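Hi all, long-time lurker, first post. I run a small reading group and we've been trying to get comfortable going from sequence to structure in the token notation. Rather than ask abstract questions, I figured I'd post a concrete chain and ask someone more experienced to write out its structure so we can walk through it together at our next meeting. Sequence below, copied exactly:
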Amino acid sequence: MTSPQHPVGADLQAGAEMPAVAAENLTKCFGSFCAVDRATFAVRRGEIFGFLGPNGAGKSTTIRILCGLLTPSGGRALVGGIDVSADPEGVRRSIGYMSQRFSLYDDLTVEENIDFFSGIYRVQRARRRERKEYVLSMAGLEERRGALTGVLPGGLKQRLALGCAVLHEPPILFLDEPTSGVDPIARRSFWSLIYQLSESGHTVFVTTHYMDEAEYCHRLALMYRGKIIALDTPGALKETMRSRTLMNLEASDLVESMKALEKEDGISDVAVYGGGLHLTVDDPGTAAPRVRQALARSGIEVRSLEVIRPSMEDVFVALIEEEESKVA
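-- Answer (accepted) --
Happy to help. Here is the structure in token form:
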């Protein structure tokens, strides 16, 4: 598998070209529990950098440290060249931050929210009107500027929150699970805005637990139980599974299919995926008839069985299983 740690010590030395965000052995413990365990990574300027992982993996804790909202227990992190431990206020002034709860005021109108955040971010008075119109246009809210924010659909509220986060034109954006609870169409629309910001020079650091969103990032850090277990481009991470063959199975009874196949020779893993099962097999040529025979013995109908390319979810499951095997 891809090495999970990419040393950035040279990036943190004076005189080196500074990445937008750099962390080395970053650690945050709450008592005996380590929410972030020696995380090391560097984010390039203009990059969309994704933090992928299940709930509780340590993604939000990491992003709060990088935003100057939490003090790390150990290690070092620089954001825009500013040490988060030495000058957290300086970090907060130089970034945009959007949390999974949007941070908007529902009892204010769209325009009033923009005005409020213009003041919070100290946007120059001469530019506030221009920046307001930019946000309204970006969010598609020109005709709803007088509407109460609380009555907006989730997708529009999400776009408004992003607009408010970039009012002061920060070079680095931190988005903490910004699409949580939003429908798929709104999520795609939101990601088109992220691409626009990246193309205009913004660095975007985004956490998500949606596997499909991982495909939109330039690079990914996969986090599990506080540790970065892999870091690379989505394509490179998928390449690590070239030695494994995946088959998609659709059958009349998935639960019984899993029971019938889990101990079958030549099948190293069986996992639920959507409405079917993903099987990791040694040889599809010999595995296919073996699968059909095993399920026939259990009275299960095979509706479809075919070799497929691994998804990001398959990669993540494989990485977690590999990590778990180290502990066992």
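A couple of things your group might point at:
The CA atoms of residues 5 and 40 lie 6 Å apart.
The radius of gyration is 23 Å.
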